[in-house]
Amino acid sequence: MERRQHRDAGRWVVAVGIMLGLGAGAMGCSGSGAAAEDVKDGGDPVAVLHRAADILRDAGSSKATTSMEMATGGTRVTIRGKGVYDFRRRLGRLTVVLPEDPAGASEHQPITELLAPDALFMKNRGAGVPADKWVRVDTATLSDGNLVTGGATDPYAAAEVLRGTRTATYVGRTEIGGTAVRHYRGTADLGNAARRASAENRAPLAAAAKGFATAEVPFDAYLDDEGRIRKLRQRFSFVNGRQKTPVAVASTTLLYDFGAPAVVRLPRSADIYAGRIAEDDN
């Protein structure tokens, strides 16, 4: 029963995960040193981007902000998140703020999300879930590979998408938050990314390659002189089950304060909600 409930929750989140509340209003060796030299020397952009996730893992942890934008019904909506991420343990904690309703008033409390290699945990989810309980979604059941579910892209999964980079160009130097960065623009293939990804992200990215409207992911990546991702903007084509037509979703991840403590404690089994998740009235 519990497995079925988690699967039901997963299906619901996939269906409207990027629209929470809207209706109501590689693998192998790291090679990070070589990648950093490639960045400094203006090396092959594709090779630089293939190694970017490894450099994040070596960096250990950072603070992160996320945003997810989409247009639906003629209205552009943005969901924002902020928190920390541990790239070695693949664990993150984000506070996700849902958009205001059309009248301008916020009807939802921020949702706390915990990101783990095999699960997404959400607190203050609403929809009949007790305030002190977490909802757990098995990311292996998500057709988007947890790239858009819950309104935030897992930062390490976003970086691993770059392992599937097919074409990329070096645009030039600029600054992000006062840090000098190199700007790269290109297209990644989710199927290729899945084959090159770490064991934890291989299956989710393979699911995303099949679940999205297209496996191609256009992106803009900004790397500092250490080869660390400072900003990553990716554009996914998501099929809204209700409209049957692809919806463009732009996900942006900002990483900063590398080395900042990223303490993430996953919920105990007793703190996870085992009931059925009700759908919001739309």
* Distance from first to last alpha carbon: 27 Å
CATH class: Mainly Beta
Shape: globular
Q: How many distinct beta strands? A: 11
Question: What is the compact description of this entry?
Answer:
With 282 residues, the protein is of the alpha+beta class.
Which terms summarize this structure?
282 residues, alpha+beta, outer membrane lipoprotein receptor (LolB), chain A, 7 helices
What do you see in this structure?
This protein is α+β, with helices and mostly antiparallel strands. The chain has one domain (2-267): outer membrane lipoprotein receptor (LolB), chain A (Clam), CATH 2.50.20.20. It is 23% helix and 36% strand. The chain is built from seven helices and eleven strands. The chain has helices at 2-16, 32-40, 45-50, 52-59, 155-161, 190-196, 199-211, and strands spanning 61-72, 75-86, 91-97, 111-116, 119-123, 134-138, 165-176, 179-189, 216-224, 229-239, 246-256. It has an eleven-stranded antiparallel β-sheet with strand order 6-5-4-3-2-1-11-10-9-8-7. Helix 2 crosses helix 4 and helix 6 runs antiparallel to helix 7 (199-211). The chain is globular. It starts with a helix and ends in a 26-residue tail after the last strand. Mean pLDDT is 82; it is low at 1-39.
What does the secondary structure layout of this molecule look like, with pairings?
Layout: H1 2-16, H2 32-40, H3 45-50, H4 52-59, E1 61-72, E2 75-86, E3 91-97, E4 111-116, E5 119-123, E6 134-138, H5 155-161, E7 165-176, E8 179-189, H6 190-196, H7 199-211, E9 216-224, E10 229-239, E11 246-256
Antiparallel strand pairs: 1-2, 1-11, 2-3, 3-4, 4-5, 5-6, 7-8, 8-9, 9-10, 10-11
Helix pairs in contact: 2-4, 6-7
